[in-house]
Design goal:
Distance between the termini: 63 Å
Strand order of the largest sheet: 1-5-4-3-2
Oligomer: single chain
Largest sheet: 5 strands, antiparallel
Radius of gyration: 29 Å
Order of helices and strands: HEHEEEEHHH
Structural class: alpha+beta
Number of helices: 5
Length: about 190
């Protein structure tokens, strides 16, 4: 009677793990960068770059608030129509534009241009990471999470014996699981 042929499943597992890993690289990089940015939201604004630029126009600026605002916009080559113009005090006028405000000192001609510029790629990554795209992106995020789960599980069984899950692999799996467990325990948890 011929000997039963043994099925070699590890090469298939390695190939599937490798291909799924390549597929996950792009999403993983985007999620990782966005995760780091969002984790430090108290330290900086990951979506916008805040700026402040001081301009010095010639001499005192006189006339009505609208006339002063028009003169400032012309001098600074700004074509945007103000959302609002209002006087803060006798010598300060504020001109509100889209994502910026011009603080105009009418007595000195100093203009402080304060605003935000979007961090284009990081802002998009954060939008996706925080699932602001809702329904459709939820399916993509779920598929990605399932892919990561598949990578984790297939990775456990890729190596046989003492180099795999039976030996040192078990130690690393336990250490990886211990990190969140210890943190929750030591921090007092939710």
């Amino acid at each position: 009677m011929p000997k039963a042929r043994r099925i070699r499943w590890r090469p298939w597992l390695r190939a599937a793990h490798r291909d799924l890993g390549y597929l996950a690289v792009g999403l993983t990089v985007i999620y990782a960068l966005s995760g780091i940015a969002v984790n430090h939201i108290e330290d900086w604004d990951p979506n916008f770059d805040n700026y402040e630029i001081t301009h010095q126009l010639a001499g005192p600026l006189e006339g009505s608030d609208n006339a002063v605002a028009t003169a400032v916009l012309t001098a600074l080559n700004i074509e945007e129509t103000p959302a609002d113009i209002y006087r803060v005090d006798t010598h300060e006028l504020q001109v509100l534009l889209g994502n910026r405000t011009l603080h105009v000192r009418t007595d000195t001609g100093e203009v402080i241009d304060e605003g935000q510029r979007p961090r284009l790629l990081l802002r998009i990554a954060n939008w996706l990471h925080l699932n602001r795209g809702k329904k459709a992106w939820t399916y993509v995020a779920d598929a990605y999470a399932f892919g990561l789960l598949s990578l984790a599980i297939s990775g456990i069984f890729m190596l046989p014996g003492r180099r795999g899950i039976i030996g040192r692999g078990a130690l690393f799996v336990l250490l990886g699981a211990a990190v969140p467990i210890l943190y929750v325990t030591l921090s007092g948890g939710p």
